[in-house]
Amino acid sequence: MRILIRKRVGGSQWVYPDNLLLFPNGEEHPTDEGLLICENHSGKTAAELSVGFDYTIQEYVEHFVPSGIKFITVRALKQRLTMEERHAVRHTDDLYIEDIYDDVVSSSYIDLESPDLAAGLEYVLAHLTSVQKVGGVNGVKTVEDVPARLLAILADGTESEKYNGFM
Q: 2: which strand partners?
């Protein structure tokens, strides 16, 4: 079975412990997209191979299309927030949210797979569950469902959101 190995964002360099003999010739040549394709002679499934490493491993499909866009512009992230969410963030007294917002807007680009970004957004969204929605009916909060909002905000980018600058 051929497998595809994708380095996780923030993962270690291309050093994969080869006790599974995935690279019998000692050759590890990632593609420009950061992918490795190799033969799996270990007898383990792709999911079993992924456990405990900074890699995502899946069965290789000949016409594999890499997953969606993971790096978007700062403007694209801000546009994913509703007007009410942006307003509540800009007018908060919470110093952590102010710091998170400053980090985001001062970034060159947004990495949608960043654990720090996900944790920061989760904190912000959790706070917004206690904030009255601007112009809304009394009792309606700015954010009602944190997990759903977080998934929507961190969804793969579109071609128009894609960051094309230097990293």
A: 39
